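Local shape tokens

___
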Amino acid sequence: MSRDGTEVEHGFGLFANKQTVNSNIAEYLALIGAIGASVDLSIRDDQIEIHGDLKCVIDQMAGRASVNSLSIQSLYQHAYKLDGKFKHLT
């Protein structure tokens, strides 16, 4: 995650059960962690840029794709609610 072009937070992933977690779930967990870090850093009014590598998650958060998976919907809703706390989150 970068703030004004400077990296302020970098996630290193997490350990999860391979049988119950797929790449979409892992990406949403990382996104929620990054947005949570932004809340902790009190940078809600700054331009915040979060980078991801799964196009489907990026498109879902941008409103360009729907969330069809039941296992993803609660994570999406949580991330979307956190996203609403910021003025400039991309």
